[in-house]
Amino acid sequence: MIHVVLADDQTLVRAGFRSILDGEPDITVLAEAANGLEAVRMTRELRPDVVLMDIRMPELDGLEATRRIAAENGASKVLILTTFDLDEYVYDALRSGASGFLVKDTEPTELIHAVRVVARGDALIAPAITRRLIAEFAGRGPRPTAGLRLDGLTTREREVMALVAGGLSNDEIAAQLVLSPATAKTHVSRIMSKVGVRDRAQLVVLAYESGMVRPGWLHIDGEDH
């Protein structure tokens, strides 16, 4: 069973989300938060698998709430769901520790799928919000230690990480590098452990911030792809 906490300052929105998610046999909503502070407290107490988080809320916004949840409780994944699909929010949410980002006009079936994807530890970014935006905003801030976190990676792991940053799934990485899907998945899990990130979304951000991947191309051991 996937346990969910809903965080949105609009009662009707929360009720709509609860109706959609509670209708699924493998998903249950544990609690509802009307602001970011409540979301952090409920996540601390209930330890849900997924927190469905609005960005603009009173007392504490969704981005800061996400940062606190990511710092306190690595087991709970945050899925940002908002009416504001501005580029800055995408990158800020992912840097804050979110595992996914959807806008509120998402179809119910897509919301359900997103919760399941994030619950199993994968990253989810709405199709309309591409990694090109992450690349654009990743280059704007200081990144003094990002590259140091990659020093322990092998050549193969760097190749795999660059392909993850390019948006490839484990199956696509396996085909690209002539590996089994299981081996590709093992590489991705080992890379996340080595560089200290929770999921693929943070791995993508780190790849851009470190300079491993640049806008428009993949950089793997000195070769352009």
TrEMBL record:
Gene3D superfamilies membership: 3.40.50.2300
Pfam families xref list: GerE, Response_reg
Domain of life the protein comes from: Bacteria
Location of the HTH luxR-type domain: 146-211
Annotated positions of the 4-aspartylphosphate modification: 54
Domain Response regulatory residues, every copy: 3-119
PROSITE patterns membership: HTH_LUXR_2 (PS50043), RESPONSE_REGULATORY (PS50110)
Keyword DNA-binding: yes
Keywords assigned by UniProt, alphabetized: DNA-binding, Phosphoprotein, Transcription, Transcription regulation
Presence of the UniProt keyword Zinc in the record: no
Descriptive protein name: Response regulator transcription factor
Organism name: Fodinicola feengrottensis
Lineage: Bacteria, Bacillati, Actinomycetota, Actinomycetes, Mycobacteriales
